[in-house]
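lol ok so funny story. i was supposed to be doing the assay writeup but got distracted and ended up predicting the structure for this chain instead. priorities right. anyway since i did it might as well share w the group, maybe its usefull for someone
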Amino acid sequence: MKRAVDLMFRAFSDPTRLRVLHLLQDHGEVCVGDLVAVIRAPQTTISRHLAYLRRAGLVRVRKDGLWKHYSLTPADGRFHRGLLECLGRCFEEVRELASDRKRYERHKGCCPK
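and the output, tada:
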């Protein structure tokens, strides 16, 4: 359990990972290409952060041909549920997250749904 808690806390300690988590929380399943376009980071950077979030047990992947779609994993216990609740409430006022939300809403999407 201690290792899982450590990984989750570390996942929340990086601004890019927080942005990814916030977009997934707002929009459900999102493909890598859309995360790249909205966050404006290289695909390799986004993929590296998604791999970290998977190891931490915070996101899951669904493959559809060449596309990978990511979503939040369902909360597994009180600690995990508390982190997800904090993500929704505690970071509400971070301007960068609000900008990501607006960019995502304007973004046409690159991956088939």
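The mean pLDDT is 88. The first helix runs from residue 2 to 12.
back to the writeup now i swear
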